[in-house]
């Protein structure tokens, strides 16, 4: 229930409870809180049992945790009717990325080897130059019907 509370937070809660309620009233407050939690759990379990009874015998295995989409998908994928494990095992993302990286690096090496000769730009763009402004006459014709 309290899986995400660490020891420091638990100590802080206890110290705050002692300060707020006092050491003489704290046991009574803890008993009241535990009694309330127990009643809520009993009410929740009886409601779940009533829902199961109303749904009928075909839903006797029904778990309310299955209503969580993550849990539902996990259960459905465990059945593996579609052969998803084979697909998942056949697709190795790290291997694919390594192949792509190697291909890109070998291509870069070829381009840099080809551009070593003077005067060849071999697809390289000089990023230090400002782009040339297009001439005024290079604009496409204005089409009144298109707008």
TrEMBL record:
- Basic and acidic residues bias: where? 126-147
What Gene Ontology molecular-function terms does this entry list?
A: protein transmembrane transporter activity
Q: What is its main location?
A: membrane
Q: Does the keyword Transmembrane helix apply?
A: yes
List where Low complexity composition bias occurs.
112-123
Highest taxon listed in the record's lineage: Bacteria
Q: How does it sit in the membrane?
A: Single-pass membrane protein
Q: Which sequence ranges are marked TM in the entry? A: none
Task: Write out the ranges of the annotated region (Disordered).
Answer: 105-147
Q: Name one GO cellular component term.
A: TAT protein transport complex
Q: Which UniProt keywords apply?
A: Cell membrane, Membrane, Protein transport, Translocation, Transmembrane, Transmembrane helix, Transport
Q: What processes does the entry annotate via GO biological process terms?
A: protein transport by the Tat complex
Which segments of the protein form a coiled coil according to its record? none
Q: Which InterPro entries match?
A: TatA/B/E (IPR003369), TatB (IPR018448)
Where it sits in the cell: the answer is:
Cell membrane; Membrane
Q: Which PANTHER family match?
A: SEC-INDEPENDENT PROTEIN TRANSLOCASE PROTEIN TATA, CHLOROPLASTIC (PTHR33162:SF1)
The text of the family note is: Belongs to the TatB family.
Matching entries from HAMAP family are given as: TatB
Q: What is this protein for, i.e. what is its function?
A: Part of the twin-arginine translocation (Tat) system that transports large folded proteins containing a characteristic twin-arginine motif in their signal peptide across membranes. Together with TatC, TatB is part of a receptor directly interacting with Tat signal peptides. TatB may form an oligomeric binding site that transiently accommodates folded Tat precursor proteins before their translocation.
How it assembles, according to the record, is: The Tat system comprises two distinct complexes: a TatABC complex, containing multiple copies of TatA, TatB and TatC subunits, and a separate TatA complex, containing only TatA subunits. Substrates initially bind to the TatABC complex, which probably triggers association of the separate TatA complex to form the active translocon.
This chain's protein is named Sec-independent protein translocase protein TatB
């Amino acid at each position: 229930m309290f899986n995400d509370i660490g020891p420091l937070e638990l100590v802080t809660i206890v110290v705050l409870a002692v300060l707020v309620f006092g050491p003489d009233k704290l046991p009574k407050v803890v008993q009241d809180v535990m009694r309330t939690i127990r009643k809520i759990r009993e009410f929740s379990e009886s409601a779940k049992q009533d829902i199961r009874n109303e749904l009928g015998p075909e839903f006797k295995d029904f778990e309310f945790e299955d209503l969580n989409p993550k849990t539902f998908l996990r259960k459905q994928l465990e059945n593996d009717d579609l052969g998803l494990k084979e697909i998942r095992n056949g697709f190795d993302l790290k291997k694919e990325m390594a192949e792509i990286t190697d291909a890109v690096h070998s291509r870069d090496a070829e381009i840099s080897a080809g551009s070593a000769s003077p005067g060849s730009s071999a697809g390289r763009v000089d990023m230090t130059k400002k782009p040339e402004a297009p001439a005024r006459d290079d604009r496409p014709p204005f089409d009144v019907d298109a707008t």
